[in-house]
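ok so i was messing around last nite and threw this chain in just to see what happens. nothing serious, just curious
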Amino acid sequence: MAHEVLYRRWRPNRFAEIVGQEPVTTTLRHAVASGSPAHAYLFTGPRGTGKTSTGRILATAVNCREPADGEPCGACESCRVFDAGAALDLIELDAASNRGIDEMRDLREGTGYAPAAATYKLYLVDEVHMLTDAAFNALLKTLEEPPPHVIFVLATTEPHRVPATISSRCQRFDFRRIGTAETVSKLRRVAEGEGIAATEEALELIARHATGSMRDAESLLDQLSSYREGEVDAAAVRAGLGDEAAQRLAEAVLHHLLLPDVATRRDISDERVIREVADTVGDMRTLNLLYVLSVADARACGSDVWNAWKAQLMRSLYLRVSEELSGVSLRTPAVRRDAAVRELSGRVEPQAVEAHLNQMPIGYLLSMEPEAIGRHIELIDSGVMSRAATPAPVAPVLHHDQLGNLDRITIVTGDRPGILQAVAGSLAVHNVNVLGGTAYTRDDGVAIDVMHVGDGRGRGIDEQRWERIFDSMSSALAGEFPIESRLAAARASYGAEPAAQLPTTVEVDNASSDEYSIVEVHAADRLGLLYTITTALRDMSLDIHMAKVNTFGDEIVDAFYVRRQNGLRIEASDEIERLVARITAAVAALDAGEPVRAS
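result:
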């Protein structure tokens, strides 16, 4: 008789047996218990974390004759058939090998038939991201109006490749990598149940190597127990794994730009972003090696690439990903909030700190240090903005200080369209480069923009020059400063040609955020470029929720979280094409000395 591999023999049959995914299984149990399962689910996460097993258990549970608190009883005829893998009403499809429109048409036709013996017919589509565009369109028609007796479970390791039209019609559950301790606990039960002698150190080495995949861990234990007679110890594991250190170094080199790219171009308060980085990295050892390699690489490039602001962003990202991988929360919003209140005591009233943070997005709390939070509260109070019934007309409060080797400016004003545009334009007029920055808006309409800047000729900026810059900025924010003409004069005086010959590319990312379209612009740096891009976005009637502005030597990579004024993202292909064309044309107009505003 053929050997049945361990991961199949120990595949869970109940929600309670799924390891490390309690938020998912609890929600599904409640749905089953209440008799109201969704018509479609999207299960996302790394391989071996329980997506397919959970889909099969869901099929068993919704068809169980006597479920107990949402769990299948395991004793009724329906449960026995489903547990044996003989149910006709569980249809599994591997989209990697059945990815065409014909397969989806067959699936759609099959949904019209009633279940053979069960209450629900469940379709489990694995690696759904592999479907062709035509196949996705065919699937969409079924998801839009599914028969009441059909449930879809779509599983994927690459959720960003699933069209928004599909994912928006599903309840999404994100499966996380399984922690080392949880993996060791399951491996111990398997070893005891199979009569395999294994040391704790060996089980821990197996769990770490599996990087959160229970299937990989059980397969490795199976392999090692067959490979070695007697006890499986640490030496046997190391011999079976080969040169683990070389593997980790290769992974770190491959992904050495991952942390700086995400930290400077994406919203690191977004749980989805953190999970995707954690899935790519895999484990804490690789993360630590990656962080050290990334910092060393960036520092070696010099101050025009590495600065204190980017170091702070990278550190915040590292801590958030380490929490995701380890399951230990060190910088949760509650922890960060308590630290801010504690460190600002004696300087700012605790009630004022709480009131300020309650009105700010989570990303602000997770990325700003207590000192900066205290300074922002003081600036808001100095402008009497927090007590203004309508913050927009209030005169801006402008502040300048140093952050390491950078000049940092903070703009506090009433939120209104064009703030970033006015700030960028007035800085460009004075030949000041924006090297990085973020923009936030409080619930009461107070905008806080923080920019890290440097002189375009590499000189210092004295206080008298800052006064002139702030005068121009105040006028620009009031709509009383002729940015276009002054920028043309500045470009004639300081030089208008881009420092590097690099084409302007514009990409629109709708996969990394549920609420916003991310417009990413990669171009050669030149005076007035940020003003030009923000002007083009405003001309397209787009609101900028957050901007991450980055200069790397002679190149810029700027990311803008935007949406239309009605709150919708930019998703239609023709709208995306117009947006890309508008930004590209605006940059070309800047280089030609023409007005960058749309006529």
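not much to say yet. The radius of gyration is 28 Å.
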